[in-house]
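For the sake of clarity, the format in which proteins appear in this thesis is described at this point. The record quoted next illustrates the convention:

___
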Amino acid sequence: MDANWDDLRVFLTLAREGTLTTAAKALGVSHPTVSRRVQALEQQIGARLFERLPDRFVPTSAGEELLADTEAMEKAALSIHRRSAGLSDTVSGVVRLSAGEAMAALIARHLAWLRGRLRQIEFEVTASHTLANLSRREADLLIREQVPELAGIVVRKLGRVAYAVYAARDFPLGRKGALDGLPWIGFDDDHSYMPGQHWLLERLGGTRPTVRCNNWLVVHEAARAGAGLAVLPCYLGDPDPALKRVGGVLPEVFADQWLLVHRDLRALPRVRAVMDAVIDLFQRERPLLEGRA
């Protein structure tokens, strides 16, 4: 058998996705292309690789054997891709950075400063809750609040983010700043793990906030519009002239920030340069991040 990698990659994607439609979408090709490439591979190998069930494709025993070998090939190809990137000795090119939406907004706020230091680098900033795959180079750098247990990942702590309660400038508070009976803005049930949500639910006696969102920037905008009180990271709330802080920093609500990079890429000059700049940025903005600005 002399199957080419493109056909094997189609086979691997279909085995993972389970349907022609989702595999085609993942590969960026047409539905018939996936079907044709798999059939050609089966003819070349001389064995049926999938059971065609009504709702999905399931690898046969021959397909399972090929799948293990193809996954090993993919791992080797990805390693070669990462290591070949590291052979460059120039501080130029594209660096992809992924962070949650609020942190991505902070990075965007300082992109002019970052670009001033790194004029030969193009930045791709992605706002996402999901963990980009560093092994597949879906991102070069991640900023996250938790450190995942992944092999080959190098981690650097950037700092700690403080949180406080905020309201619109003209939002009416109770006598002497009392907050009882006022509407609150928080996250929906699927995002109740966000910082400050446990504190908020305890304060509300287990009832849910009046307004529920799935994104920090939406929570921020709702608070600016006067829809209620919200727990926000201080780096979002304090610089905003449309908001006022209600009380001090919440000592029990905080989130450590971590910079993640694959070990094969940390020595790549452009990635190293962006890492150093992001570390410097967090040091410079430490008072704001900790609610002391």
About this structure: Residues 61-85 form the longest helix (25 residues). The mean pLDDT is 89.
